[in-house]
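Entry 14. Structure prediction run on the chain below.
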Amino acid sequence: MRILTVSAQKPDSTGSGVYLAETARGFMKNGHEVCIVAGIAPEDEPCLPEGARFIPVRYETESLPFPVCGMSDQMPYKATRYRDMTPAMVEAFAREFSQVINGVVQEFEPDLVVCHHLYLLTAVVSELSLPCPVTAVCHSTDLRQMERHNLERERIVAGVRRLDRIFALHAEQREEIIELYGVAPERVVVVGTGYNEHLFFPVLDQDQKKDCFGEGGEGATEGASEGAPLRVIYAGKIWRKKGVDCLLRSLKLLPFAPSELVVDLAGGYNSEDELATMKELAAQAPYEVNFLGKLPQEELADAYRRADIFVLPSFFEGLPLVLVEALACGCVAVTTDLPGIQPWLSQALPEAPVFYVEPPRIVNADEPVAAELPGFEERLAVAVEEAAAMVAACEGTPTECRHLSWSALAATMVQSV
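Output returned:
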């Protein structure tokens, strides 16, 4: 098949960008041709799977004179908030993407279109009456945009209802899509998330036994080796809505000696001010805290393999692929118990070592109630301590995740249409 993949935002940044790039790679691995249409800034040269055709729609130009539209109100790069778009901006957006996509359809002749996000661009694509099935992946940030403002709401709902198939990350999200957009349940398919099994794997091959995970063998993980400090890692945007400030404050509640714990924070940030605030909190922590910045996937995988515990204290997620990646690298995981994550993981990875933390009460889709944060931080510290006890006891085996590869997910998407 020839598959056209479409996104309004950068295709190699944020979780949805990784999802786009990796499913494209999965399609190609399964023998399909792929063309990607995505929005980028004038200076961008995206890193995309080798062999995929890329047709950019460039923002900050005469015909599209504003920064890349971002599905989150705060992106790790200069971006336009959808809530701030004027009718003239919407018209320019729809015109530019429509022209590019119509041209690609004529030349590439796709058999299938896969849009990313159930939002404005997906609605625009659905209006083009393309001669092939048009589908879209929900990433949860689109649902959050629909909850928080009314930009082109009727147009977006009508567009989503025209889709031939909708891909949800988990069962709870599927129900939310059905209710919010009023689509027929049989058109919404749960596909989950995937991971790159060639990058994200434990220190040793799955066939080898090691002292830290079961009986016999040689070679514990680097972070779990005798005498080394316990190593905790977070991966994602350095952002309070990801709970990073709560994680840093919770460090004061842990019982370890200062030399017994190291924390690594991997990811970009929204603003210099917010990053400075996080660094102030890190300086107050009783343990070493390292800001690694945004890492290439290969370096992130190495960071996971050095770590013992992965922590995701976020207040809003779809289905975080960083969680699967960390588990695949041998981490014990601690994560906020957000809707859909525990049921999906329990089915997809029933033996995974994951500790779930009850979140604070959330308002306005992703804002935690401030009065409940101290309790959340206490629960977070308890979960980290429990995860540390599991690491110290060398319980369990590295999580087998290979059935969740991107190529398997890509095959599921194609077979569902």
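The first strand starts at residue 2 and ends at 7.
Filed with the rest of this week's runs.
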